[in-house]
């Protein structure tokens, strides 16, 4: 006999990328930043730790909101912070989508969106990207039960981006809030924060896990118009960001020179990866994230993934219905990428894949 809600009992649950606990791996499977964060982060965390942890943290993460507002060109009351951007996605889903209602997402994309709908007891409607990774017109069509739409931009696994003009048009047409998930946007050529000012249906979520090298800290935020933020605050946990993460995140976003330098290094390596994989024979769309996505019809990429893992290199193998299977490779350090690409060439030359 199960006392669990039927929706929870029936769902498979979200499965994060492999996180090896023993041994040394070249880890290119979860889009972490290969470089240490700004030195200011460690200093800020140590200073905050020296102040003690016996008191509750600031429930609004005010110091972060004030500095982030300056960086983004908004006021602090346009920002709400969370325990990573996944916490933000959960809060937004809980706020807008009820039992039996619909959440819309593109596919292939971040599979957590579907899991969040299942937890709510709601339905998820998956709309396939066009062949060029643009949004089809049906993504913007209305529906009586549609309560929320998600768009990862840049997208995972493809690394591609939907232009701002198309996002603005989709938001105008949609009858519901439209969250643009910008987890990887610091590696892209444009972002959608200014669209939030133009349309209160648009929300933009961000994370410090990728571009600020703080995946282990867990800190994210959402930008929305203040009356929307006021509603989301009712749903979030009282103290969803701890004192150390607030201190570290504030120091990270304050160091914009570190971000610019890190972005340049990642983009340089990303281009080298893309060029080499295309030379080998992969089809690789132009990525605006910190990873590349490669397909190779006629080759067994599951076997390639297994070969790399046996050689202690982790990448992400993904196979979506009606799409060619592919491997997603995070942008690592130069030596890490050299080792990965060499193993890929070896596997293909030996007919392992």
TrEMBL record:
The keyword Amino-acid biosynthesis appears for this protein: yes
Record carries keyword Cell division: no
First-level EC class: transferase
InterPro entries registered for this protein in UniProt: Aminotrans_II_pyridoxalP_BS, Aminotransferase_I/II_large, HisP_aminotrans, PyrdxlP-dep_Trfase, PyrdxlP-dep_Trfase_major, PyrdxlP-dep_Trfase_small
Molecular-function annotations in GO: histidinol-phosphate transaminase activity; pyridoxal phosphate binding
Domain Aminotransferase class I/classII large: 24-336
EC code: 2.6.1.9
Catalytic activity: L-histidinol phosphate + 2-oxoglutarate = 3-(imidazol-4-yl)-2-oxopropyl phosphate + L-glutamate
Pathway participation: Amino-acid biosynthesis; L-histidine biosynthesis; L-histidine from 5-phospho-alpha-D-ribose 1-diphosphate: step 7/9
Similarity annotation: Belongs to the class-II pyridoxal-phosphate-dependent aminotransferase family. Histidinol-phosphate aminotransferase subfamily.
Protein name: Histidinol-phosphate aminotransferase
């Amino acid at each position: 006999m199960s006392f669990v809600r039927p929706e929870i009992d029936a769902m498979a649950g979200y499965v994060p990328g492999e996180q090896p606990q023993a041994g040394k791996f070249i880890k290119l499977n979860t889009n972490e930043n290969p470089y240490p964060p700004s030195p200011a982060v460690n200093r800020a965390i140590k200073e905050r730790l020296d102040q003690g942890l016996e008191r509750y943290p600031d429930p609004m993460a005010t110091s972060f909101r004030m500095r982030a507002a300056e960086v983004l060109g908004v006021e602090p009351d346009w920002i709400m912070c969370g325990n990573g951007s996944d916490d933000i996605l959960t809060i937004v889903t809980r706020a807008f989508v009820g039992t039996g209602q619909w959440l819309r997402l593109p596919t292939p994309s971040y599979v957590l969106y579907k899991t969040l709908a299942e937890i709510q007891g709601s339905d998820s409607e998956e709309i396939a990207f066009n062949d060029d990774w643009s949004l089809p017109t049906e993504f913007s069509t209305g529906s009586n039960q549609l309560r929320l739409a998600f768009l990862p931009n840049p997208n995972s696994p493809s690394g591609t981006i939907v232009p701002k003009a198309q996002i603005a048009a989709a938001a105008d047409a949609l009858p519901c809030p439209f969250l643009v998930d910008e987890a990887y946007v610091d590696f892209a050529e444009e972002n959608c924060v200014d669209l939030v000012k133009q349309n209160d249906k648009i929300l933009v979520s961000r994370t410090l896990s990728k571009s600020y090298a703080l995946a282990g800290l867990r800190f994210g935020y959402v930008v929305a118009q203040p009356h929307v933020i006021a509603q989301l605050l009712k749903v979030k946990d009282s103290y969803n960001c701890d004192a150390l993460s607030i201190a570290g995140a504030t120091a990270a976003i304050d160091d914009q020179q570190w971000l610019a330098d890190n972005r340049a290094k990642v983009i340089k390596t990303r281009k080298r990866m893309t060029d080499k994989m295309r030379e080998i024979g992969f089809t690789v769309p132009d990525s605006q994230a910190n990873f590349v996505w490669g397909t190779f019809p006629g080759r067994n990429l599951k076997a390639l993934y297994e070969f790399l893992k046996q050689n202690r290199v982790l990448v992400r193998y993904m196979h979506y219905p009606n799409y060619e299977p592919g491997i997603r490779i995070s942008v690592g350090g130069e030596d890490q990428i050299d080792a990965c690409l060499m193993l890929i060439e070896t596997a293909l030359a030996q007919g392992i894949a």
